[in-house]
Please model this.
Amino acid sequence: MAGTLIRQPAASEPIGTALSARDLEVLRELDALVRETHLLWDQEWVGFSWRNYTFEHMQRVRALARTIAWGEGADLRVVEFAATLHDITKSYDGEIVVGPDGKRVLDENGFWRNETLPPSRSNRVTRLYDRLGLAGTLHSVSGGRVADALLEEYGYPIEFRQRVDRAIREHLKAGDDASIEGRVLYDADTIDANIGLPAFYRNIQISLHREDTQYARRGERFIDWLREHLPGYLDSYLRERIPAWIEGKERDFIPKMTTRTGRQVAAQRIARLQAITAALIAELEALEEALDRGRLAVVRYFMEHRQNPELMQQLGVLEARWADSATAPPAAELLRLIREEVEGQV
Ligand SMILES: [Fe+2]
Ligand SMILES: [Fe+2]
Model:
C-alpha cells in the first residue's frame, strides 16, 4: 500500500552523507538532552499531550522531515538539527487559556494562548530558557532561541544557527516567505499530529483520556466500562467518529501543506488510513477472531494500555506477539504499516 512516488534515500546513502561524524555525535547528545528536558515536568497529561508523547513525536517528525526534505531539495543538515530541537521548549506550554465565554483565547498570530507551565526540576535547557527570558513566548520562538544557544555552545557558526532558528520559528506557521527547511518542518509536524497512523494512535489516546476524565468525575473507571462494552464502543468509534475525524483532517490540513512532497505524503496517508478504517469496520463482523489476530487486536491493545504509553515500546511488544505465526495475521500487517509511517516512509 505504501506509495513509491517520492524519492527516498536508499540504504546505501544514509542521512549521514549530509552530516559529519561530529554532527552525528552532537545529535546523539541533543537527543538525550531533549528527552531529559521533557521529563523535567511531572504532569502526565497537559492539553493534548501525555508525558511520553513529545519525544516520540519529535523522532517521527524528524524521520518524515528527512523524506520531505529529499523530495524538496532542502538542506538536510538544517532540517535534521531543526527537527531535533523544534519542540525542545514545548513542555512549557500549559493548559490552553479559555475566556469567560468558554472559548479558547487566541494571541495576535491566531494561536491558542497557553499558560506557561514551569518544570519541576531544572537542566541546561531550562537554565538557558530562564537566562534568555523566554517565558510567555511561543514554543516556536523560544525553541529557536534555545537551539541557537545550544548550537553556539557546540561551536556551530552563526549562519548555520540562524537557519536552524528560522526553521524552528517557522514550524508553527510557515508563511509565503518561509524557508524551504521551515516549510518541510511545518509539513512534517502537521502531518504527524493530524494525518495518518501516528495521528490515529494519538486520537485513541486523546479520545479515551477524555472518557477517563469524565468517568473519574463520577467516581467510576472508564477502563472497567470499556471491558464490558468493547464491541459497542469500537462500533461507534470506527463507524462514526474516525471517518468524520479523517474527513475533517483531509479538509482542514491538506490545503495547509506548504510543499508538493508534503501534500503527496498527506494525501497518501489519508487514503491509507481510510482503507485501514474500512478493514477495521469489516473485522467488526467476526469480532472474536479479529480481537485475537486482526487489526482490531492492535486497536484494542492501544485502548487498554494507556499509562503514559510509548508507541515504539508497544509496537515492539505487539510485533513479538505475532512473530511466530506461520502466516502473518492482519494484526501484523497493520503493525508493519504503523512502523513504516513512524520511520518516515510515505
Ligand atoms: Fe511544536
Ligand atoms: Fe512538533
